[in-house]
Amino acid sequence: MAPVKSNHDYYAVLEVRPSALRDEIKASYRRLALLHHPDKNFGCSYATAKTQLINVAWEALGDPVKRGEYDKTRPQPSASAGSRPEPSKPKPTSTAQPKRRPSPRPDTTAQDEARAKAQSNKNRQKWLDFEKIQEQSIRHCKKQVKPLQTDVAALNAKITTNREKLANDVPYKWNVFAFLTTRLSEQEKNELRSQSLNADAAIRIKRVPLDKVQAHLQRLESELVRRKEQEDMRLAAERDETARKECVAREKVEEEARRRVAQERARQHAAQEARDREAIKEAERIRQEHARQRAAQEVKNKAAREVAVRARQERIRKAEKMAEEEAKIEKERKKASRAGAQRYSTNGCSHMHKVWWEQVQGRYDCAHCKRLLYTFGYQCPVCATIACASCMHQLKSGRTPAVDNSHRDERRGHDHSARGSGRSTGGYDYNHTPSYDSYPPPPSPPSYSNPHEYDGYWD
Prior knowledge:
Elements: H1 10-13, H2 22-35, H3 45-62, H4 64-73, H5 108-168, H6 186-346, E1 358-361, E2 364-365, E3 372-373, E4 376-379, E5 386-387, H7 389-396, H8 412-420, H9 451-458
Antiparallel strand pairs: 1-4, 2-3, 4-5
Helix pairs in contact: 2-3, 3-4, 5-6
Pfam families: DnaJ
Keywords: Coiled coil
Domain J: 9-74
């Protein structure tokens, strides 16, 4: 016959582990049966139901065959008042698929704490209910013990009184004061002895329920003390567990704070390293940019220097060419000036010199006084005669300048010092430059028919 499947965990009912031996299960069954027996709890319905469940659990677990069949169909264990049995581990099969691990929920800790708090309250309520029932049982037992103890005490007192009466009833020769008392008759003595025997028999009869009730009271008190110690231990364990959890929570908070500080330091360190790397890259980029700019500037400066060198060489070449051309022109001009002066000295000038004389730069010899003109001279645009300022004024006034060769015998430094000091030679200051206001307006350009006029005008 297949066993009837029950919704109760018999191991939890008997407060034993699934791996407990039969002797342990039997001892726990006897203890719980005595504790929750209806006779001890005055017909309490809870005690009656509890006792029935304990008996059913013992019937299932006391027989090894029934226990083996029960273990195959045993429901999942639930938390009980006195124990937390270990769940049986199912054997893995070849066709079993691995279960997917559920994702952790963020409120798991809070739910666990709530469940633990609810279980603690449930255990506390069970203890309070047990304490209440146990105290009621103890009070009831005490009520049963008290009249029995009173009856036994009364019977003992009666026996003691009868024995004293019989002891005092002695012959006169043994009792000096016997003459003052009344002697008991044999009937009275027999009656006292009979009463003592009856009282002793009643005491023995009453001692049986009294001892039973006292033993039950002692068991109730012992069980109450034991369960109270268990409750105190449970509360102490809960307090220790609460303290441990608080300590773990504090350590977790401190660890989290340290982890956050370490993460923040690592983040700051990484950020600082990133900034340093960026700064190094920026400095390298700036250095490369400066190097590139310096290289470009060097190339530019080199090109500029090459251009400047070529320009300088070109200027030097042009200057040399111009100097050669100027020297050639100057040579031709001097030659023309000497030719004009010679023609003037031999034949005389056929025109008047009342025209605008051009100032020509360079070193010349005056065609009349033969003086050396270091900086510039004056040239007639008509006959190309180059003369000093004194001879030019004399020619313009129609006079003929006197030829003075005395300066050729003088030392060159003396002439220079004379001109440098501002002294006039021959009545004229050669360092003086006449103002343009003292000259007549310039004449119109000469015609190109006369080559000498063209050379004198443009030079």
